[in-house]
Amino acid sequence: MTYKRILLKLSGESLMGKKQFGIDNDRLSDYANEIKEIVNQGIEVAIVIGGGNIFRGIQAEEGGMERTQGDYMGMLATVINGMALQSALETVGIKTRLQTAIEMKEVAEPFIKRKAVRHLEKGRVVIFGAGTGNPFFTTDTAASLRAIEIEADVILKGTRVDGIYTADPEKDSTAIKYDTITFDEVYKKRLNVMDMTAFTLCKENKLPIIVFDMDTPGNLKKVINQEENIGTLVEI
């Protein structure tokens, strides 16, 4: 199928680039230019970014902090990343809107489905920050939820590996990459694609997922154009 509207899920860690913490401006610029290419093709783009380069709620819990408090701090980290990506996109001439699940009207719009869809129809990139607005849910779940709400054609999960493998390719040199795989096969083989809540949401709503390497220049455009052997497609 031809994709008209996509949701791009990026990890916070990916924004670190070569740094150990925070945001690498070169990586941010690279991502902005990659996204600009597909926007110029007429693709409607929504984005969810994690906050792990700044703060992770689950790590806070391990250090003795109450989980709910830590999760809200993590949500704020995703807003910082969203603002950074918004600035990078606007620097290369792409109109954007940042919407957040926690209201902070000085820096972003509140998430309203109809407004988000209207922005997309007008060619603006919409960045969704603050996860779902609820503790105990990951940004993977936020990505699945928002993709379903805006009726995206697919979730593109940008990672540092080029797809889903039979085992972790960074640890097992014999791991074999899947070009396509079903939701049921992922469950059966216990493969790590997304957290289970997010993954089940996609399955129940028949929303396909493509896992691909976002850090290789040109890959995002290749995925959109459905070139062979780029990423792994998960579908019913």
Description:
By secondary structure, this protein is of the alpha/beta class. It has one domain: Acetylglutamate kinase-like (Carbamate kinase, 3-Layer(aba) Sandwich), CATH 3.40.1160. The protein is 37% helix and 19% strand. The protein contains eight helices and eleven strands. The strands form two sheets. The protein has a nine-stranded mixed beta sheet with strand order 4-3-5-2-1-6-10-11-9, with helices on both faces. Strands 7-8 form a two-stranded antiparallel sheet. Strand 1, helix 1 and strand 2 (44-49) form a beta-alpha-beta unit. Helix 5 packs parallel to helix 7. The longest helix has 25 residues, at 67-91. It is globular, with a radius of gyration of 17 Å. 44% of the residues are buried.
Q: Total number of β-strand segments?
A: 11
**Whole-Å distance between the termini?**
14 Å
Radius of gyration: 17 Å
Give the SSE order as H and E letters.
EHEHHEEHEHEEEEHHEHE
State the helical fraction.
25-40%
CATH superfamily heading = Acetylglutamate kinase-like
Broad shape: globular
Please work out how many helical segments DSSP would assign. Answer: 8
Count of structural domains: 1
CATH-scheme architecture: 3-Layer(aba) Sandwich
Give the class from helix and strand content and strand pairing: alpha/beta
Under CATH, the topology is which?
A: Carbamate kinase
Strand order of the largest sheet: 4-3-5-2-1-6-10-11-9
Q: Which residues form runs of ≥5 with pLDDT under 50?
A: none
